[in-house]
Amino acid sequence: MVCTYQQNTDPKKLDVTRAKVSVFYKKDKALLTVEDRNTDEKFICKSPMNLLMGLAGLAVGLILASNPIGWVVAGICVGILVAAATIAIVTHKCTGPLQKGKWINFKKTVYFNGHRAITQLSMLMCDSGGMLQPIISYDVACKAAKAIAWENIKETTVVTVGAIASGFLMGKGGGFLNAMKGIFTKSGALFTLGGIGTTYAMTSYQQHVMRGNEAYADNEVYQRMNEADKKDYGDIKTIGEEFGNSIKDAALSGAPPNISDLAGVVQLYRTGQLIIQDATLRAQFEKLATMNRQQLNSSQLAQNIWREVQTNPKYESVYNAVKRNSNYNQNRVTPTMRNNAISHLDDSINNNKWSLNNPNSLLSKGASIALFFVPLVSGYFSENARRKLADIAVQDATDSISVRTSK
User: Fold this and answer.
1) Dihedral over Cα of 168, 160, 198, 178: its sign
2) What is the C-alpha to C-alpha distance for residues 356 and 8, in angstroms, rounded to an integer?
3) pLDDT in tens, 176-209
4) For 297-310, what is the mean pLDDT?
5) Which residues of 76-95 are buried (b: 16+ CB within 10 A; e: fewer)?
6) N or C: where does the chain have the smaller number of CB atoms within 10 Å of the terminal CB?
7) pLDDT at 151
8) Residue 59 to residue 254: CA distance in whole angstroms
């Protein structure tokens, strides 16, 4: 058996769990039914791994934001992540979710010990969300397990890095509690719910596009998985479950998406535009740095620069800063005016460009916007794990057992 949620690189054996076993293949291999829902060993599952690594990553980010990085701090951070991964592996049990799961595509007309038979076409839907596929060939099963595991490990890596970044930005923005207070305000709650809804819409559309890929239209394994995963949005219960899962996933992440981050795209553009224009103007003033009063009075370049500052609305703050601190003729550039302009532009650039303490900076705002799209990246790897199973499982078709009704 291989599972679309597994992070271990080896397959597991499907165990017989029904009460009575009397039907065998080649005398020693029990033929399996829908009542058999467990494996001989548990999988390392991405579901608890993503959750615990996300929470651990959030803690690491908060630590990094409040302390200078050093060997001790780095060791603590690594220890937190390792401990979270270990807990996810040690405490996770497959038995419960598998026993609550259900088989699809079973043989409706064939019974073993009173239970419907399963075949290679069957799939076990785990209660934790994964899909388990029986594969007869051990070599094919190993190949599939490795391919799936690497995609799921990539997904967990994205979740962990995103959580560390979220924690770091929270720490720089006033800490975790301050961020949580913002969520529970009226506007904060609306922005958060809007963000959760937007994220759900984006990931749902991504899933729709990926699963509709024509390259997989003839892949029976992939189409069976897609059919089993279809949701009836006409059913109020389905809508409730989807909404509840979205809220739960966002809350457990410790950093729910906020739709105001998307509005920050405009702010990000304007901030970047401001930095570029300030840097350009500063470079122009720098050309006047070695000129004395007389040279500035006669310099055509100085006159052109000052005329631009006086007449261009985008330089209004520079003009006001220079004019306010000058007692000289406003139609000429003096050394004091030049120095004030350079000082003002330096402050403007330094306060906006890379300061993490400034919520409007390129880095912090850009990071927030990037984190909004982390679910799309992790969703890509998640869907890719299903594709890997579909690509490789079809190779198992030539190694099968025929199960049919006896006449």
Assistant:
1) negative
2) 38
3) 555 566 666 666 677 777 777 778 888 888 989 9
4) 90
5) bbeebbeebbeebbeebebe
6) C
7) 96
8) 10
